[in-house]
Amino acid sequence: xxxxxxxxxxxxxxxxxxxxxxxxxxxxxxxxxxxxxxxxxxxxxxxxxxxxxxxxxxxxxxxxxxxxxxxxxxxxxxxxxxxxxxxxxxxxxxxxxxxxxxxxxxxxxxxxxxxxxxxxxxxxxxxxxxxxxxxxxxxxxxxxxxxxxxxxxxxxxxxxxxxxxxxxxxxxxxxxxxxxxxxxxxxxxxxxxxxxxxxxxxxxxxxxxxxxxxxxxxxxxxxxxxxxxxxxxxxxxxxxxxxxxxxxxxxxxxxxxxxxxxxxxxxxxxxxxxxxxxxxxxxxxxxxxxxxxxxxxxxxxxxxxxxxxxxxxxxxxxxxxxxxxxxxxxxxxxxxxxxxxxxxxxxxxxxx
Length: 352
Fold this sequence. Notes:
The chain is mostly helical. The chain has 13 helices and 8 strands. 59% of the residues lie in helices and 6% in strands. The termini are far apart. InterPro entries: Lgt.
């Protein structure tokens, strides 16, 4: 009854084993891509634009996630530097992945001639959808779960199906399915972003900021249930603030065990609070200063050509994959055509 019901390995091809975790993450990336492509079409952005972004963004996210994790576990890696590259042994962090992906995205968007705020708004639902799906990889692997709980709480209070309850039994002890809590929270956030991006009052950058606010609120409370959090030794006043913010949850939950050897402040909780404050401040500052003059529903203008995305100077739809210098060359063609027409008229006048 208490054995692992789901095999982490989906199938094998000779000596190569394909894990469910990889399949789930691949599915998450594909769903995120499809969402971005579908929304991008409304603004004239081609599928190739987002395909290239995915090909660059995924490696950047993995590198960022690994650097983030290793940085906070440096004592375990400083004498075994080769272990830093053994990502297959586990050890990545979602916030690091976001940092890596966003740095890559900003560089890519600027190179293509677009305002990063506009494109990141389009990608925000893809991020939260990917996280929603990706958490089920933790479920299959029996990892990133919460502290101990009663089987009756899972079956009778939460009314979870048996296949989830049984999978949450780790070595004879039932645990909170934090993967499910976060997945459902992200689903609600995805619906919220879908609704907001059809409202005219939303300015450029505010869909992305809403994503950060929503995700961080959920992550703050769910992170406290986990037993594998990255942490550091913080001052007593900071611990008191974190505990105070968590206190409303004590009605239903108890915090997961945090090894004192790791620290007394969960890094993801602190970062979540800072992100919420920063996102709200960015929305206010950009509105007050006029930096958020564009609305989400406004056309996306390519800064290289001064034209709406996907449109050439002739007014024809143009593939986003076209080289920027080619687009710049195309933009001057009408002027050349006008000069030629004027010269022809002068010639006709002389001949007449």
